[in-house]
Amino acid sequence: MAHTFLLAPNAFKGCMSAFSFCSILGQALKERGFNSISLPLGDGGDGTAEIIAHYLQADAVRAKVPDALGRLHEATFYMRGKTAIIELAEACGIKLLKRKERDVFNANTQGMGTLVNHALQCGARDFILCVGGSASVDGGLGALVEMGLEAEIEGGQRNYLLGVKRLHVDSLRNKFSGIRFTILCDVENPLVGPTGSAAVFGPQKGATPEQVALLDSLLSEYADMLQASTGHDVSRMPMGGAAGGITASFRALLDADLVSGADYCLSISHFDERLAEVQAVVTGEGHLDSQSLGGKIPGTVARVCKAHDMPVYAVAGVAEKEAASCFNYVLTFSSLAASTADSIKNAPYYLKLMAEPLIDAFYSGFHY
Fold first, then answer.
1. CA-angle at 254, arms to 133 and 205, nearest 5°
2. pLDDT band of 368, cuts 50, 70, 90
3. 358 in helix, strand or coil?
4. Which residues have C-beta within 8 Å of that of residue 67, sequence separation ≥ 6?
5. N or C: which end of the chain has fewer CB within 10 A?
6. CATH number, domain 48-262, options 3.10.50.40, 3.40.640.10, 3.90.1510.10, 3.30.870.10
7. Distance CA 105, CA 368 (A)
8. pLDDT, tens digit, 9 for 90 and up, residues 6-33
9. The CATH number of domain 4-41+281-365, selected from 3.40.710.10, 3.20.20.80, 3.40.50.10350, 3.40.50.300
10. What are residue 150's DSSP bridge partners?
11. What share of the chain is helix, strand, coil (3-state, %, to 5)?
């Protein structure tokens, strides 16, 4: 009887979706006499909405929205009945900006709010928001003002955090009364402080050290405004620093539930149940590092596999040494590719080559 691998990857950012990973590796394993079950996964970052839509059998809807700098483009969200699945990265994510365009003082989350409004007009009453991959540190003000939050804001910069003076929350809360928000997060960071939104993620979005310090101070003041307006102290709340603080705002203003995106995807894909059908699991993502072991897919998959005494292998573009200990075996494109650019450009080719060593690793540790 042929053995079966469960393929449970995250997307390889910038080069390969989780769906493509499953298709390519699954075919390569099949050619060598192995079966596979495909469970593409996401943790709240790029591509997660499409994955959730796949499991919920939701329909794609297109809408014109502004990117982080205000330029209109078409974005996709998903609807199934009264449930809307929306991805921030699709609307106003950093992937839509060239590196030289990253500008935290003029980037905001308005596009996310625009998609929420579109979904509301389509009859949505239950929102699943995927917020990884943001380009801004605006406390979610761009989205919330677009959705109807009344705020007194001075200055003309697109990042309203720089000029917000007062919040008036009643109209927003009335508009979304009875509507549920679930936000899928891929980080645990709080809103403010040395591990907060500005300090940890600001530099990735183009912030200088001086801008990071200012944004952290402004987020702290904003948290005080939220507490004064809602009674909720979200300054140190786990996951409150995701996506520039949009999670903290939605929690305080709209009672959003903040959950692990990885755990959510494992649940809706019935990952635990599928383990009974396989002899080993393969997960992976583009860059496997210490963060991968936190709220990301590879670490979450490894944790569940360990609890079930199931062999788990990781495939990555590159892998840091500290990440390897959670897996029975780690394979990388970088060990075969001529350069990082080569491994990204030719990721499907290198993934096909992973089938043989995966099978070897399986047999070397397999006990009949």
1. 20
2. very low
3. helix
4. 73, 91, 92, 96, 97, 111, 135
5. C
6. 3.90.1510.10
7. 60
8. 999 999 988 899 999 999 999 999 999 9
9. 3.40.50.10350
10. 168
11. 45, 20, 35
Residues paired with 287 in a beta bridge: 318
User: What is the Cα–Cα distance from 302 to 41, expressed in whole angstroms?
Assistant: 13
For 312-363, what is each residue's pLDDT tens digit? 999 999 988 888 888 999 999 999 999 989 999 999 999 999 999 999 999 9
Residues 6+ apart with CB under 8 A from 55: 265, 268, 269
Can you spell out the DSSP letters for 55-118? HHTPEEEEEEEE-TTS-EEEEEEEEETTEEEEEHHHHHBGGGS-GGG--TTS---HHHHHHHHH
Task: Give the phi and the psi of residue 70 in degrees, each rounded to 5.
Answer: 95, 5
pLDDT reading at 295 higher than 80: no
Task: Show me where the domains of the chain are located.
Answer: 4-41+281-365, 48-262
Report the pLDDT averaged over residues 120-128.
Answer: 98
CB 294 within 8 A of CB 188: yes
Q: Between the CA atoms of 87, 93, 96 and 99, what dihedral angle is there, to the nearest 10 degrees?
A: -160
How does residue 235 score in pLDDT terms, banded at 50, 70 and 90? very high
Residues 160-171 have a mean pLDDT of 97
Across residues 33-44, what is the average pLDDT?
96
What is the number of other CB atoms lying within 10 angstroms of the CB of residue 255?
14
DSSP state of 156: S
pLDDT of 55-78, one tens digit each?
Answer: 999 999 999 999 999 999 999 999
Q: What is the dihedral of CA 353, 356, 359, 365, to 10 degrees?
A: -100
Backbone dihedral angles phi then psi of residue 339, each to the nearest 5 degrees: -160, 170
Q: What is the pLDDT of residues 84-118, one digit of tens each?
A: 999 999 999 999 999 999 999 999 999 999 999 99
Contact in structure between 172 and 150 (CB atoms under 8 Å): yes
**What is the rounded CA–CA span in Å between residue 82 and residue 31?**
42
Alpha helices by DSSP H, listed for the chain, are 18-30, 48-56, 88-92, 110-121, 141-147, 170-175, 197-201, 209-230, 246-254, 261-268, 271-274, 297-307, 340-345, 347-353, 355-365
